[in-house]
Design a protein that fits this description.
- This protein has 227 residues and is α+β, with helices and mostly antiparallel strands.
- The chain has a single domain, classed as NADH Oxidase (3-Layer(aba) Sandwich).
- 38% of the residues lie in helices and 15% in strands.
- A 4-stranded antiparallel beta sheet has the order 1-2-6-5. The chain has a two-stranded antiparallel ribbon with strand order 3-4.
- The chain starts with 22 loop residues before the first helix and ends with a helix.
- The model has no long low-confidence stretch (mean pLDDT 97).
- The structure holds 3-iodo-tyrosine (IYR).
- The site of 3-iodo-tyrosine has 8 residues, from helix 3.
Length: 227
């Protein structure tokens, strides 16, 4: 028999009893996770080697564990393997990026990006075995009509963070690619207008000769304030 609930509830609640680790064990796990996350880099040079569908499924299962506003889980992940669709995405993304890089009125933005040595060529969108596009559900669509969604950006952002971590854990690389605007993805991937394209994730193994910009992470005292 299950123990009676210690509190009165109007809705179903269930016991939650995660393992309580000894402090030293928790810190060791935290250190290991930090070192693992710190070894991740955004990649723009990919291998065409295949990645099993199961890996994409596992990454989306991980993303799908994210906390979300009112538990509305306002995300959809579209996994693209079809070479024709990938090529359509590449051509449309490159058209937007060309316009972005040719804009003369945003020199500061271009300056901030220069150390990444990016340009309008997005050949990796053809090379990778998968492109996953995260969509944010601006509102829900139910039989009764539109349901307002709360904290959509925060929720989808957290889900995407977990997604990136899951890929890295499987030895896969990705990039948070955000061509601007991204409306073309709604069309190419046949998504409803209730969804907004959020991030394009090219996914694969890094190329054998992959390089990344020599960047460092900001020191902890700039990331963390104690009071
Ligand atoms: N979307 C462009 C430009 C770009 C913007 C940011 I913010 C970056 O961190 C990197 C690139 C591109 O993908 O080239």
């Amino acid at each position: 028999m299950t123990a009676p609930s210690p509190r009165p509830h109007a809705h179903p609640f269930v016991p939650y009893r995660p393992e309580r680790l000894p402090v030293a064990d928790g810190l060791r796990r935290g250190q290991e996770l930090f070192e693992h996350l710190d070894s991740r880099r955004s990649v723009r040079f990919f291998s065409p080697d295949p990645v099993p569908r199961e890996a994409i499924e596992l990454a989306v299962r991980s993303a799908n564990t994210a906390p979300s506003g009112a538990h509305q889980q306002p995300w959809t992940f579209v996994a693209v393997q079809d070479p024709g669709l990938k090529h359509q995405i590449r051509l449309a993304a490159e058209a937007e990026e060309k316009a972005f890089y040719e804009r003369a009125d945003i020199p500061q933005w271009h300056g901030a990006l220069s150390q990444l040595e990016t340009d309008a060529n997005k050949d990796y969108l053809d090379v990778v075995p998968w492109i996953v596009v995260a969509f944010a559900q601006k509102y829900g669509v139910t039989g009764a009509g539109r349901q307002k969604h709360y904290y959509v950006n925060e929720s989808v952002g957290i889900a995407c963070g977990l997604f990136i971590n899951a890929l890295h854990t499987m030895g896969l690389a990705t990039l948070t690619h955000t061509p601007n605007p991204m409306g073309f993805l709604t069309k190419i991937l046949d998504r409803p207008t209730s969804e907004r394209p959020y991030i394009v994730f090219p996914i694969g193994y890094p190329a054998a000769d992959c390089e990344v910009p020599d960047l460092t992470r900001k020191p902890l005292d700039e990331a963390l304030i104690w009071r």
